[in-house]
Design brief:
Strand content: under 5%
Largest sheet: none
Helix content: over 70%
Number of domains: 2
Radius of gyration: 71 Å
Order of helices and strands: HHHHHHHHHHHH
Length: 691
Amino acid sequence: MKIAGVFNHIQIRTRLLLILMAVLLPLLVLTGIAVMTQNRAIDFGQKEIYGVLYNRQVVALMEELQQRRAADSGLLPPTTGQQKSASRDQAQRLMGAIDQLSQEYGNSLVIEQRWSAIHSRLQKVLAAKKPVEAAEYNAIIERLLDLNDYVGDTSNLILDPDIDSYYLMDITLLRIPRLQEYLGQIQIKGSRLLNDREDLDNSLLVLLSEKIVLAESQLEAIEISYQKAVRYNPELAQQILIAGQIKAARKFLNDSRLLVLGSADFRSPSAYEKDGFAAMEQLFRLYQQTAQVQQLLLEIRISAFRREQILSMVAVAIMIALSIVLLLLVGRSITHSVHNLKQTIADLASGEGDLTRKIEIPGKDELSQTGIWMNRFIESMIAMISKIREQSNRLHEITTALNESILSFNQTAQDQAAATEESTAAVEELVSSFESISQAIEKQTTNIRDAGRDLDQLHTNISNASESMQSLRSSTETTNLLTTNGLNAVREVERAVENIRERAQRVNEILIIINDISNQTNLLALNASIEAARAGENGRGFAVVAEEISRLADQTATNTRDISALIQDTDQAVALGIARVQEATAQLSSISDAIAQIAVVSEETNRLQAEQRRSADSIQLVMKGITDISAEIEVATAEQTRGGNEIGNSVASISSGADSILHETEAMRRTGMELNAVAQNLRDLIVRFRI
């Protein structure tokens, strides 16, 4: 439902365009998909053509290498320098063609790396001054055969969808190149067998037999693939003639088989080699012919795809054009009827209300039915507008009479409002006087009350101060006593510290004596050691005792030095303690003097506070009497103000009522005027319609 509501805001022409888009968009999408599919098929076929073109050059190069291999193996007459140069130039030309194709089709066929490896190896072979071994040629040709198969995979040749071109692919890609190499190897091995029959090697016969069997198998496969391709496409029988090529290859294979069997009727080696070259040349021609027809079939297929693509796009374009023309015709018929209907309704809405005009839409569709119902609606409008015109005239007469009555009543209300305003002004002046007196008395009373509260606070503060001074006196006496006791205790400490200092000095004197004794003992021990040394063995025990005594004397001297150092530290600490005690004694004496002074000041403060308390009590009694009198005056003034306010309220109520009446009458007058204007506008609107 919401989506349908959105379309209600769109013009009919736009809706028709949306319908056309809804029809054409899937068609365009399907056409695009079909074109993409055809493009993929075209690209598929084009890639196959790339493979055919590339492999034709590869097979041509392989055929040239087979000729060079035969020449280097001695199967051909000795070649001159000019012939070698021509052969090398031909190989270079074919390699250049493959290089160019690798650059053009490298991204599609993915062959650059494989061809680069073969190219570098071929350059070495072509640059060689001496004949190259057949094994080297065999390895390069095998690499070319692998490249041929690889291109068949990457170029989609192996996946060819058409039967005729598929079997031609089988002949050109899988059969002829391999068969041609088999024939070349059979030619070399058969020639060796003919030239060296006396030194016959069984392994050579076995190898030659294997190659013959493989070649015959490939030859049969070529015939089968050709027959299948011709069965599907009979025109190929006139385009590709394989009888002579197959006959030459089969004749050479039969001669090779007779050679293996040792037939006595066999001809000379040169005749055998000539038959081999003829068979290989015929196979190469068959390859070129078949590859050319295969390329032609692929091009025909691609052309058919392109024609189908163009035809489908033309068909879609024709369908789109027909749809647009049909849409324009249908849209024109719809929009013309809608325009007539819209124009008539617009004339009615814009003020040119010619209700005598009829809507004429030919046909029997929904729009013509809408025109009929609109005509009936206009007839109903004519009857309704006639009645509204009569009622508007009557309304104009009523509003005119109402406005005259309102004007008269409004004048009376204005007179009453003026009288009430004068009374209200007099009462407001009286009430204002009462309020001024009341405010002055109230302010005075407030000041008196504030003064009383201040006196109460003063009385309280004096009492608190008296109590504080009493506490201060007690604290002062206690502090004085404690200070005196502390001073005495400090003096006792000073005397005790002095005694400690004297005793430490005595201990120090004793330590000096002990130190002298230890020094003398040490000297005696030294003398005893000397005497024991003189006594020899008899004095050894005495020497041990003397040494022990000397050690004890040294230890005693060390201990006395440590004790002396401790006593000196103690003496310094005691001296510092005596200084601190003397400072404390001086401070306590100062505190005792200050406390005595505080006691004198406290006595004087107590006397003054007693006198101030008596004065505050007298002032408090006087202020209480003044406060009572002010309260009585304030009550009387409030009564007078209240009476004046009541009078003012009564007069104000009368004035407000008069104002309300005046406002109501004014509002009624404006309403009457507006109603009259509405009636006049209604008459003007109705007059615009022709009925």
